[in-house]
Amino acid sequence: MRPPAGGAVNLTEDLLPERGGGRAALHVVHGRQGYDLDAAERAVADLLVAMGKDPSDPHLADTPRRVAASYAELLTPREFNLTTFPNDEGYDELVLATSIPVQSLCEHHMLPFHGIAHVGYLPDQRILGLSKLARVVELFARDLQVQERLTKQVADWLQDKLAPKGVGVVIEAEHLCMSLRGVQAGGSRTVTSALQGSLRDDPQTRQEFFALTNTGR
């Protein structure tokens, strides 16, 4: 079976029974599974040979296994419950989590890019457990990615699952494919944003979001 194209997301989402206080949760599991680690290990060994290295060298003996296991870990998000609560207080200001750590793999070079994400939303009927914003970032970051798509996927998914009045996502990241090779622009950061609803359409709300994230645009 041909694997999904880059950026394709296969999720299993099960709505859990509603709990006390109107709390609801969506159990989210990423569909990537069934890695052939033996085949991956052989491929890494072949790569070492192609690069003029001897995989039987004692210092490299476990390298193919470690590399295969590392990529499997980097490409597998942890399952979680997307827990939401009724907005009983009628809160109508921005909810924002800043400086969420982000690490992902560039789909062009399979080298890491890493940085921080700022994720916010303007509530409507429901509010979200704050730790879940970081979980959603991880859900899409643990993949072969480009930063632009990652930013949009986080915003689109939150807009779809939470149905807020608006969503904003900013990601600032350093790409090792730029720092360690090619232009070798160490320390340079790429900034991307994705806005939904009132954070996109209302200038005042948009300005407030960028001011709070210190990414004024």
Q: What is the topology?
A:
Layout: E1 11-15, E2 24-30, H1 37-50, H2 63-74, E3 80-86, E4 95-106, E5 112-122, E6 126-128, H3 131-141, E7 144-145, H4 147-162, E8 166-175, H5 176-179, E9 190-197, H6 198-201, H7 203-212
Parallel strand pairs: 4-7
Antiparallel strand pairs: 1-2, 2-3, 3-6, 4-5, 5-8, 8-9
Q: Helix and strand string, N-terminal first?
A: EEHHEEEEHEHEHEHH
How would you characterize the largest beta sheet? 5 strands, mixed
Give the tally of structural domains: 2
Question: Which consecutive residue ranges, at least 5 long each, have pLDDT under 50?
Answer: 1-5
CATH topology of the largest domain: GTP Cyclohydrolase I, domain 2
Strand fraction: 25-35%
Rg (CA only): 20 Å
Briefly note the structural class of the backbone. alpha+beta
What is the annotated CATH architecture of the largest domain? 2-Layer Sandwich
Q: Report mean pLDDT, rounded to a whole number.
A: 87
Strand order of the largest sheet: 7-4-5-8-9
Helical content stands at 25-40%
CATH-level-4 superfamily name of the largest domain: GTP cyclohydrolase I, C-terminal domain/NADPH-dependent 7-cyano-7-deazaguanine reductase, N-terminal domain
Binding site for Zn(2+): 106, 109, 177
Subunit structure: Homopolymer.
Keywords: GTP-binding, Hydrolase, Metal-binding, Nucleotide-binding, One-carbon metabolism, Zinc
Protein name: GTP cyclohydrolase 1
